[in-house]
Amino acid sequence: MNAQVGNWDDLRLFLAVARSGTLSGAARALGVNHSTVFRRIGAFEDGLGVRLFERLPNGYLLTPAGEEMQAGALRVEDEIAGLSRMVTGQDLRLSGTVRVTTIDMLAFGLLPRHLASFRKAYPGIEIELVVGNATLSLSRREADVALRVGNEPPESLVGRRAGRLVFAVYGSADYYDSHIGPDLAQHDWIGFDAEHAALVRRFTSFLPGVTPALRANSVAAALAAAKAGLGLAPLPCGIADLEPDLARVAPLPDDFTLDLWLLTHEDLRRTARIRALLDFLADALLKEAPLLEGRLGGDGAEIISAP
Amino acid sequence: MNAQVGNWDDLRLFLAVARSGTLSGAARALGVNHSTVFRRIGAFEDGLGVRLFERLPNGYLLTPAGEEMQAGALRVEDEIAGLSRMVTGQDLRLSGTVRVTTIDMLAFGLLPRHLASFRKAYPGIEIELVVGNATLSLSRREADVALRVGNEPPESLVGRRAGRLVFAVYGSADYYDSHIGPDLAQHDWIGFDAEHAALVRRFTSFLPGVTPALRANSVAAALAAAKAGLGLAPLPCGIADLEPDLARVAPLPDDFTLDLWLLTHEDLRRTARIRALLDFLADALLKEAPLLEGRLGGDGAEIISAP
DNA sequence: AGCTGCCCTTGCATAATTGCACAGGATAAC
DNA sequence: GTTATCCTGTGCAATTATGCAAGGGCAGCT
């Protein structure tokens, strides 16, 4: 008879197109050629005898039938992701790959030396680092471990608060030499965009009425802008203190901090290699608390003291 | 990272092996070569890094991990079957294939001429007839329509009672000419096996203490045995009256009947081609009620009258 | 208006998957 | 004990799926 999902894997490609809205976007997400996605979707629709997407010049749009298909396909995906987690969760080998996701400032400024140490300690475990400021899904196994900043973790994940990032004001020597005095409000500022709501709020509390001249969408970008002499920036001490081109200009209020979270999915917490990485990083980050909390580059050394 | 279900279609093959217990059985069920199943299962396990089956000389046995995988894969299968039904349920074309399942006595003795008429009426619809006495799953789309006998349909199906098969005692002319008298209890009998519980009960009520010399596992087999002169058999009039080699020997009690059911899955009842077939068969079977209820070959014409 | 970058679609070559044929082992039936 | 039938497993050829390269369309930018 007709209209059977003959190849269940077609649903995986269908979902990717549904999510991205384009064949090309789906192909990138899936790691295949866009012509492959084109043919697979076409064959899938032919086999079902139904149109799942409307073809537009700039992409593919779900039809009503496609929307119903998507709802079911998402349930299939959840189920299969659960199976993958179940299998991985029982894996007691200290080998294989762990995919870690984090934001760029941690990826460049904090993690590499710890991951290098981890690799020395566990040569059988490979690390795949996925850097990006989009929050990847651990439920869908887009990553196994996440190192995130924020003030509470998502509900479905398990993990621990692994440290606290204390922020201070930094600027480059070049910037400071050519700009006026100790009144912070009179300086140029590098701030953050609306996606960093916690940082925006704290900055506005700290310097009401000051509008940053540049708003970055990531802390790493802000740090780079500060190094380039574009202004002063509130930056985490654990990262900025390691930059020879930056100087700590002033402290920030005690609440100008972000918590650091080490997270995984509940089903994966007993996977040996994931357990090993989480334990290792937790210990390493604990030992780095003085740096993270700004107590090394420290108190009393700022160009401008706390008022 | 490891242990992801990379190709969701692997689950479909996995389930087939889990069900049948052998590569060869799964291959037959799936319509592929057994070597394909062998390689797909091997690759699936390698990709997951876990053994799902224990290899035995006579087949494949699920490991504990395999059993957990099976539980989830069954949920995936249900979901995908629901998607297939959803798509098919919306199909308004009077074309395509309808898979019909029924038991052998109906397949050989009743359906063919009606299916021939249906095909003439709807040349765009193809019929696939699956004959067997195993009850196929309409939920899993093993068939679209079932013509079954029994006294109530399974809960999850929808359908209608399409007629009633009245039974009578039949024997071949050869048998009767060479066997003694009007006492039915003194004859050789062809009965049914334990899977035909309703018929066994009725027969025992009818002739207590008579043990059939031959027990058939299908009514078609019983009919063939009766034609071969092996004894008397309780057979449905709608089928046996059409056999020139069989004569109705005696009536049976009024409750020696089976209901005829036309069934489909709830989600498929609005599929145009399935709707068309159900309506057509219901009408055809209604018109055949005189034959099915034994009123054509009938009353008063038996060699031995009802006591 | 022209250019750039994104998109979809298609023909051909390559890679991967599948089927075929065969071999060997185990079990059941005779 | 022998034979038949089932099973799994493997090498090679055939088939199918995929990637590559190219072309065309469209929207946005200069």
Characterize the structure shown.
- The structure is a homodimer of 307-residue chains.
- The first copy, chain A, is an alpha/beta fold and 307 residues long.
- Among the domains of chain A are: 9-89, Arc Repressor Mutant, subunit A, CATH 1.10.10.10; 164-257, 3-Layer(aba) Sandwich (D-Maltodextrin-Binding Protein, domain 2), CATH 3.40.190.10.
- Helix content of chain A is 41%, strand content 22%.
- Chain A has 12 helices and 11 strands.
- In chain A, strands 3, 4, 5, 6, 9, 10 and 11 form a 7-stranded mixed sheet that branches. Chain A has a two-stranded antiparallel sheet with strand order 1-2.
- In chain A, helix 1 (9-20) crosses helix 2 (23-30) and helix 1 packs across helix 4 (64-89).
- Chain A is globular, with a radius of gyration of 24 Å.
- The relative contact order of chain A is 0.14.
- The A-B interface holds A 1-5, 7-9, 11-12, 48-50, 65, 68-69, 72-73, 75-76, 79-80, 82-84, 86-88, 90-91, 93, 96-99, 128, 141, 144 and B 1-5, 7-9, 11-12, 48-50, 65, 68-69, 72-73, 75-76, 79-80, 82-84, 86-88, 90-91, 93, 96-99, 128, 141, 144.
- The structure holds a DNA duplex (30 and 30 nucleotides).
